[in-house]
Each structure stands twice: as structure tokens, then as C-alpha cells.
Amino acid sequence: MKKNSVMLTAVSLLFAATSAFAATGTLPKGYEKWEKSKEKVVSDKSSLFYGVHNIYVDKKAMPAYKAGGKYPEGSRFVVDYYKLKEENGKPVKGKKNMIVLMKKDKKFKETGGWQFVGFTGEGKASKLDPVKNCYECHLKEAKDRDYVISKYTDFK
Ligand code: HEC
Predict the structure, then answer these.
(1) What are the angstrom distances between the C-alpha of 90 and each of 38, 73, 93, 120?
(2) Beta-carbon contacts of residue 14 (< 8 Å; ≥ 6 apart)
(3) Average pLDDT of the chain to the nearest whole number
(4) Cβ neighbours of residue 91 under 8 Å, at least 6 residues apart?
(5) Residues 88-110: tens digit of each pLDDT
(6) How many whole angstroms from 38 Cα to the centroid of ligand 1?
(7) Cα(91) to centroid of ligand 1, in Å?
(8) Residue 78 · residue 87 · CB < 8 Å
(9) Which has more confidence, 22 or 134?
């Protein structure tokens, strides 16, 4: 009986540890220096991606990003999103309002072996559900590209 409850505690601790890890996560230092896409401007207000964004890709992810196929463990993508403001009738880039991260990590089985984390514009993890708020859409859009939606060809 005693043994059982010890086991249970161990299991729930493990569970707490993994879910805390999934919800938090930190932004990789210096990602602004990775290879970066050109700025994308989405001016359609009905789009989820209304605003301006840049995609950053690390060195590990680059070969698969260019050639296709599975990404090696540790591959990382970061996207910075900025608001779009209007100045004298012209759209201009506003404040950063969201950052997202994907990191290839086989521990995250329920999200295709990628860790998905959303952050505020200041880089604070925003406790989004990685399955419902991230993975479901990536699964739908890019199942055959290891869940990476953008392409290197849209990069330049
Ligand atoms: C409704 C669909 C949708 C949801 C939900 C979504 N994304 Fe994406 N994501 C996209 C699209 C579309 C792109 C490609 C953007 C581009 O081409 O500029 C993208 C790109 C990315 C990229 C760059 C790598 C790639 O796949 O091209 C990362 C990192 C990313 N998303 C992380 C996240 C995270 C983390 C969440 C949850 C907090 C999330 N996404 C939720 C559609 C979605």
C-alpha cells in the first residue's frame, strides 16, 4: 500500500515536471542572429497573421528546411510577430506582440516530437496549450513536412 502511494507521488511529480516544461520553455539566446526570412506583411485584417513577421531558422534546421525531410533533434525555429499600424495611410511595423518557438525534441510526443511554445512580445511564455493552440494547425498544414509550414523558398 505504502509503496503504491510513493509510486503515485513519483508519477504525479514527473507529470507536473513535464507539463510545466511544456508550458514554460525559454527563448533561445541570440536567435536574432540566426538566418532570417524577409519581413512578411499580412495586411488582411481577417487573417490570423495580420501584422508583420520574421522567421528565424537555426543551423541545425537549415539543411532539412532547404531540402525537405525530417529535422534532426535540436532544430529550432522562432517567429517574431509585430503589430501593423497605419501612418499617413501607409502600413508601418508597430510593437512586437508575440513570439513563437518550435524546437525538435522527441520528449514532446503528443506534438509530433516538437516543443511548441508561445511567448508575449516581451518573451514571457504565454501558457498556451501546445496541442490545441499550436500543433493541430501545424499538423493540418504540414503533416508531410515534419510540421514545418513555411518554406525556404518563401525566405528570400
Ligand atoms: C491556425 C494555424 C496556426 C496555429 C494555431 C499556429 N501556427 Fe505556427 N505557423 C502557422 C503558419 C501558416 C506558419 C507559416 C508562416 C509563414 O509562412 O510566414 C507558421 C509558422 C510557425 C513557425 C515557423 C516554422 C514553420 O512551421 O514555418 C513556428 C516556430 C510556429 N509557427 C510556432 C507556433 C506555435 C508555438 C504555436 C502555438 C502557440 C503556433 N505556431 C500556432 C500556422 C499556425
Answers:
(1) 19, 42, 10, 26
(2) none
(3) 86
(4) 41, 43, 84, 85
(5) 988 889 999 999 999 999 999 99
(6) 16
(7) 23
(8) no
(9) 134
Q: How far is the CA of 142 from the centre of ligand 1 (A)?
A: 10
- The pLDDT assigned to 19 comes to 45
CB of 137 closer than 6 angstroms to any ligand 1 atom = yes
Please, which residues have CB within 8 angstroms of residue 31's CB and are 6 or more apart in sequence?
Answer: 56, 58, 76, 78
Residue type, 5: S
Question: What percent of the chain lies above the pLDDT cut of 90?
Answer: 66
pLDDT digits (tens, 9 = 90+) for 18-39: 444 445 689 999 999 999 988 8
Is ligand 1 within 6 A of the CB of residue 102? yes
- Cell digits of residue 140: 493540418
Q: Is the CB of residue 100 below 6 angstroms from any atom belonging to ligand 1? A: yes
**Hey, whose CA ends up nearest to atom 15 of ligand 1?**
150
**Which amino acid, 100?**
V
Q: Pick left, alpha or beta for residue 57 (phi over 0 → left; psi -120 to 50 → alpha; otherwise beta).
A: beta
126 C-alpha to ligand 1 centroid (Å): 15
Ligand 1: distance of its center to the CA of 13 in Å? Answer: 31
Q: Which three cell numbers stand for residue 8?
A: 503515485
